Amino acid sequence: MASTPVESKLSNLSINGDLLASAPNLRNNLSLLSPQQIDLAKMLLEKNQSHLFKHWPDPGVDDDKKLAFFDQVNRLDASYPGGLASYIETAKGLLADSKAGKNPFDGFAPSVPSGEVLTFGEDNFIQFEETGIKEAQNAAFVLVAGGLGERLGYNGIKVALPSESTTDTCFLQRYIESILALQDASYRSMQGEFKRDIPFAIMTSDDTHSRTLELLKTNNYFGMNPKQVHLLKQEKVACLDDNDARLAVDPQNAFTIQTKPHGHGDVHALLYSSGLLKEWHDAGLRWVLFFQDTNGLLFKAIPASLGVSATKKYHVNSLAVPRKAKEAIGGITKLTHSDGRTMVINVEYNQLDPLLRASGYPDGDVNDETGFSPFPGNINQLILELGPYIEELTKTRGAIKEFVNPKYKDSTKTAFKSSTRLECMMQDYPKTLPPSARVGFTVMDAWLAYAPVKNNPEDAAKVPKGNPYHSATSGEMAIYKANSLVLRKVGVEVDDPVRQVFNGQEVEVWPRIAWKPDWALTFGEIKKKVSGKCSISQKSTMVINGRNIFLEDLSLDGALVIGCIDDAEVKVGGSVQNKGWTIENVDFKDASEPEKVRIRGFKINKIEQLEKNYSEPGKFSLKP
């Protein structure tokens, strides 16, 4: 007697009867499914996921939703290294460890890793900067930009937020202009041997992909060749309902698995699967630099850090800042296991102190004679050597050691308050590296390298006094402070700041100094652009937009906006005095102001300025 289509499909499933009996509604709908979908169904049943089919009606009802369910399962399976079965198995193990209270650092002893500590403007800093500029044309940059600005009180994507209000330059524009300036500086430093465009990859998410693309297209990619830019979209991962790693059904749709972001560690798998790494390697590139979406100071630290990687031949170089003991920022730590394994990784601050106490350091994480913890603060910016990076990803396919953080209903740890998921972090890449890998760090002053924008005004105002606010307010003021201190270092007399309160945050207000990256990327370049006796008052604003602008005996007390094309050279000096631009307080609850203004707590009133733009080739002098 001939078998029915369903029986034929059942034989293809090769599932024992008991397993199939757990999902009678699936059995009734098998005739709808393709062979590939049946394979996925078999995998789900084998992994104890029969509950996903519990509410399926008979064939003919909601068939389109059933097929859409398998489309989603297929996406979840394809986007995770090892597939969805591997995700479920990993989740079971990590959830069991979490329930048992297992310490991921059991058997490891912490010690201080080796790295380079740099001070801005010192001889070795300048040397590393020069090396880094030469190496820049051998680098690719990767921006992790999957987040929205909701946590900041801003409705758009974070990279569209202005980094400062003097020029209204958004973060993405700042980053692209910095990469282009590095590209040109590297070409010039190599005496024009050959010109290579620096590739720029951006990891987006469902939330940010279309808006990032729109921001780029609307602004002509901020001057970058569109062929240099690659967008890689991160997929979400399945949520988990219980300690048995049963996948969570979306409460709004019984035919959909609930999903959440997996974390920025996905960037490694995306780069690997996209083929970009091989493309970059074949083109002769040597470095990949990873950075996050709202640190307006980052590129001041890039040239010297890249110089450290090249000089020290680091496979992995983590950028870091001095860190106070017990400060709420992860510490870069060397961990040595009792079985001989070693790794240099970021250890979260709330894990570092107990780990030290359990390893023979009775006082835990304490400051040393420098006034800082010997474990530098991780700022999630990495420089990886491309060759060893590809070798490692060929083994792992970009999978990063994951963790799970379920919120339990009570101390029995038998049920979750809400669904959880596996997460991974970009900076955990070194966890799988062999002991022979050269993993180090580069420490720079926080004023030069680190001012992330990640807290909304209300949360920032609650930060204990003396701790960084990490808000739009503090992030903007940090740019003015860094530019002021850099100019001081080359001999400009810059007035001390005044302290003001915006959105409940007391910050230092320095002169509002901003320049385009192509004016000067390094200490050495700035030194060449400033001469004589220059001074800038605290109330002043200075905007420099042009590569060949030189400050010579300039006394500024007001606002100066100066620009020129590449074929013009402008010397600016004399005394510039006017009413300038003032800062006006804005309440973050004032709905009459745009969000981007409200979240920083102030706006700039442009009352009077000296503004001059040189659009013709030639040599010019501006001396009022």
UniProtKB/TrEMBL annotation:
Keywords: Nucleotidyltransferase, Transferase. One of its GO terms (molecular function) is UDP-N-acetylglucosamine diphosphorylase activity. InterPro entries: Nucleotide-diphossugar_trans, UDP-sugar_pyrophosphorylase, UDPGP_fam. It holds the Pfam family UDPGP. Belongs to the USP family. This is UTP-monosaccharide-1-phosphate uridylyltransferase. Its cofactor is Mn(2+); Mg(2+). It comes from Heracleum sosnowskyi. The lineage of its organism: Eukaryota, Viridiplantae, Streptophyta, Embryophyta, Tracheophyta. It catalyses: a monosaccharide 1-phosphate + UTP + H(+) = a UDP-monosaccharide + diphosphate. The keyword Iron does not apply. Its EC number is 2.7.7.64. One of its GO terms (biological process) is UDP-N-acetylglucosamine biosynthetic process. It is an enzyme of class 2 (transferase).
